[in-house]
Amino acid sequence: MGFLGSPSMASSSSSSSSSSSLSSASLYGAAFLLWVLVLNGAAVCNGGSTSPFVRKVEKSVDMPLDSDVFGVPPGYNAPQQVHITQGDHVGKAVIVSWVTQDEPGSDVVLYWSKNSEEKKEAKGKHLTYKFYNYTSGYIHHCTIRNLKFDTKYYYEVGIGQTVRRFWFVTPPEVGPDVPHTFGLIGDLGQTFDSNSTLTHYEHNPHKGQTLLFVGDLSYADHYPNYDNVRWDTWGRFTERSVAYQPWIWTAGNHEIDLAPEIGEKIPFKPYLCRYHTPNKASGSTSPLWYSIKRASAYIIVLSSYSAYAKYTPQYRWLEEELPKVNRSETPWLIVLMHSPWYNSYNYHYMEGETMRVMYEPWFVKYRVDVVFAGHVHAYERSERVSNIAYNIVNGLCTPVQDQSAPVYITIGDGGNIEGLAINMTEPQPKYSAFREASFGHAIFGIKNRTHAYYSWHRNQDGYAVEGDSLWFYNRYWHPIDESTSA
Q: Where is the Purple acid phosphatase C-terminal domain (predicted)?
């Protein structure tokens, strides 16, 4: 620090008057103080921005059972809780699922393309399950295969009794410059805020074509004895969207439903019975982790609440899966999970840390573009950072900017009964680019192999308003820095 001087050095100047000596001392002292403040500011490592928007403090309340959004469709044994998801690895198949309450009814789905009146038939299967004192309706699953890409299809369920008709559009054929728009919702639940989130998403002018759901569906486990009636109400509530476009499912902690105190010892039972995934198409042994291709995206779904340590089935599958991704065919590599790895809220802080330690080097090696997670009931977007350099002795144990790393986005802000996470860590860490404690949804619109446009939308705003946005540059084809904070 000698280059700044000090009071003792100043007073030793041979021919200075006492006043000039005091003046020099004051000058050097002020400079020293400024230097200390700069150093302290650098040590704090303040990050990006915390939104100034403050949501009105309101308690989250589940909609009552007689709400119109939970209405049972009219007619004898009418199919309800209709939902679809991708049924193969490339987008030429759709899993159609629904529930009949009075009797099994038909397992058949009739379907036809917009340009053809010839109805085809696909036959599925049905199942039931018991959970404590609840018995489910008849849950049907039917996979429609060999569909044409980029085609609108109509389909009917309830054949022979009360027939209900819906439609969906298959994705374009897989290719490097194929545009596609994904919606993103997590931790939805079935509160009045949940209804606002889904309505906001439905009216977004960017029009998501496929929804990536990052876990925590019904929150039935919030009720005494894990009241599975709330699985039924959630299925009827979301039907207005998921019967018409595929939701890609990720399991969260509220899907575990493990309750040995009431005799329920099988984890994920209601979720696995109700929500099927195409895991076998990607060589996965579990519906809880799998992959799909859709347009120009390769989407990997992981399970935060299944074993993921070395040599476990999930670990072995991911180790073999990542090298299979051909970025010349599917440039955009997206990962979904429930528990975030980078989180600056005082909720679920570092719960994803052990999984991060296991898999983050792979995400950097294979240049994952973006990781979407939920769990924390708020919104946050990170910079491109990694924390993989640490080797016990080198002391490099904090996240650093890394242009081969993903952007991590927490979108657990769907509106569930547990309410918002409003308590943030301070100061905002450097890896955090933007955060806000509000409910909302997001849109990830792929334009081509190099560019995608991302936007987050809070429920309180008009449908076209963006609370946060970013142009993403593909890590494989266009890996330039798109940071939004200094």
A: 405-462
